[in-house]
Amino acid sequence: MMTKVAYQAPDILTMAYKQPVMQDQLIPLQEKDQQIPGSVQYTIKRYRKNPQWSLDDMGMMVYNYKKEDPSRNYLELRFCIAGNVYCQKKDIECDSCKLGASPGCSERIDTVDVLNFRFLPVHLSQFAKPRRTDSTVSEDLLEFRHPASFSKTLSLCGRTRLVLETLLNHSYTGSHENIYINAQSQMLLLYSLECMVGEKEVEGFQCKFLANEADREKIVQAREILLQHIGEPLTIKELSRKVAINECYLKKGFKEMFGTTIFDFYQGQRMEHARYLLYEKGLSVTEVSVMLGYSSISHFSTAFKKHTGLKPCELLLH
Fold first, then answer.
1. Structure pTM?
2. Distances (CA, A) of 97 to 48, 92, 173, 203
3. pLDDT digits (tens, 9 = 90+) for 139-153
């Protein structure tokens, strides 16, 4: 009986460099990772760039499908970016590097950055819609209905590059860093799925008012405020006042720009942060419920199970 060979996606660093890169050539500068069950699993690695290397910026989607073992299904985004700069002392001495004000600083190092984001079925199910006869490519991938594994290179549009840049250069730490990276990874997923269905980057938006840059900035600001208030639920009225935009425009603009409603986005980020606090920080269900602003443990537990498919106590048993 023949054994079916597991699908092996190409290494994105090798593709960007156009030849294999030996491990002893890679000098690590920084690494971040998250491996929480059911959540987006990510690694962000920054390496010192050899001056002789010539690399292309690349993106890749890897779809891993196992009909006989659905627990091994996953959708992964991989990115390799060259040409960024890492400052070894930006966190302890100055912020000048962020502003490009000290190009001659001896602590600035040219980097090659490799970012991987793996989405599991339990995490992707929150984005899938009820099955229809005219389902899109994106929906088939989110629900793992596409019948074969594959990898596909992705074009790095301006929006994707901006998200990657913020992931490499943000100043968040601890719990706030986890919230931020989880939220940005969803944006990468959205833009990558758009590439899969052949949608090209457009100049404007369907909403006429979003053609105004100031209004787009207000929508982005609203998303940032939501991330900063994970434990302090805001009403849409309160949020609209904070960014000085009409409630209706805010709801419509948010859905247009980010592909989800304000409530679904906020609730998803709260539950992902709850998963982090329970699994990584080992906090009790009661503590997490209070931190996220829930009036009762039962309300929190119901919301958590609806989002993750798990009871909060199940993440405490690792």
1. 0.76
2. 17, 12, 18, 31
3. 888 889 888 898 888
